[in-house]
Specification:
The complex is a heterodimer of chains A (112) and B (112).
Chain A lengths: L3 E4 L2 E4 L5 E7 L5 E7 L5 E9 L2 E4 L6 E3 L9 E3 L8 E8 L7 E2 L3 E5 L1
Parallel strand pairs in A: 2-11
Antiparallel strand pairs in A: 1-3, 3-8, 4-5, 4-9, 5-6, 7-8, 9-10, 9-11
Chain B lengths: L3 E4 L2 E5 L4 E7 L6 E7 L6 E7 L4 E4 L2 E6 L4 E6 L8 E8 L6 E3 L3 E6 L1
Parallel strand pairs in B: 2-11
Antiparallel strand pairs in B: 1-3, 3-8, 4-5, 4-9, 6-7, 7-8, 9-10, 9-11
Classes of the chains: A mainly beta (112), B mainly beta (112).
Amino acid sequence: DGGITQSPKYLFRKEGQNVTLSCEQNLNHDAMYWYRQDPGQGLRLIYYSQIVNDFQKGDIAEGYSVSREKKESFPLTVTSAQKNPTAFYLCASRRVIDYGYTFGSGTRLTVV
Amino acid sequence: GENVEQHPSTLSVQEGDSAVIKCTYSDSASNYFPWYKQELGKGPQLIIDIRSNVGEKKDQRIAVTLNKTAKHFSLHITETQPEDSAVYFCAASNAAGNKLTFGGGTRVLVKP
């Protein structure tokens, strides 16, 4: 079955450590996205990429970094510069010719 | 940039009644408006969408209406069932179609 896989589902890290969240898709989608979700709030765009080796900042990119070395993969690194990293992180993808997004099941990051 | 407002933030309905969620957007160039359903601990799933050249779209018990002049769109769920209980998000795409901006979400509780 085609889909988006985010791993791990739960992640705990100590304050000051960088952590990388994985996102892999086998849908042959061109564009990939990272959103952050906080309790009671909507989804906020962190970074997105429309083609390999290219990505753009979203609305809340500070403290985050990404790479897009392969079409299937779009890992997100939460750096120690992110002031409040505890959140639910969602990865999504879409074909460039379509508008609809397919979401992964998310990674809940807790920084202690 | 685009701004999407969603109301109400919570909605409690009796099973069998209708539920209506309303969203407004700020960018008149937005041309695609999807609705997502998110169950606890999962990623959002697309349930219905509408493009700016259409005023209304229906799929079984759910329907979406769009008023471009007023820049608002609504989700209607008829004959609600307990499995409709979830968080619903509206979103608006930018004119290029490469970014979605989400509303803050509506938590819907259907009481049996």
